[in-house]
# Entry
Amino acid sequence: MSLEELAAQAAHCTACRLHEGRTHVVFGEGDPDAKLMIVGEGPGADEDAQGRPFVGRAGQLLDRILEAAGIPRSSVYITNIVKCRPPGNRNPLPDESKICSSLWLLKQIELIRPQIIVPLGSVATQFFLGEKLPITKVRGQWFEWNGIQVFPMFHPAYLLRNPSRAPGSPKALTWKDIQTVKQTLD
Ligand code: URA
# Structure
């Protein structure tokens, strides 16, 4: 099974209620041999309209974060915990995350086998850490998940709401975190 074949299956998914409101399934995109996989929460309005992950304002900020560390977006695989947009951009519900990730995300990870997974924000981080911990406590730290290094970072949407670049600010910490990721990629 290739990523394309998996994406073709996901395009028809009706396994949870989120399929009812979607325009597109946002499966994920990027290098199938990526060493770095970035996992967000779920598609927003722009992603739902275009069928691509992280293409709205948060996505443009993610592009700048990657660029700052010299990581080409095309070298990364980018996806989300849930592949269909939750109504009104609410957080995915636990059953939605569970159903969707077991059908698609876990298989994507198995096919890509990245060296590093960066979950963005608390919903994605909770998936890999197995418990709800404040993102402020766990970002910028290394965890291990099924033999893969996991390094949580702030979600870019959170950075859009907290634009200060002062030392110690979420943005300043994120710019430091992405350098750590870059230095750890072999
Ligand atoms: N926010 C996410 O978590 N994922 C996207 O794809 C876009 C915005």
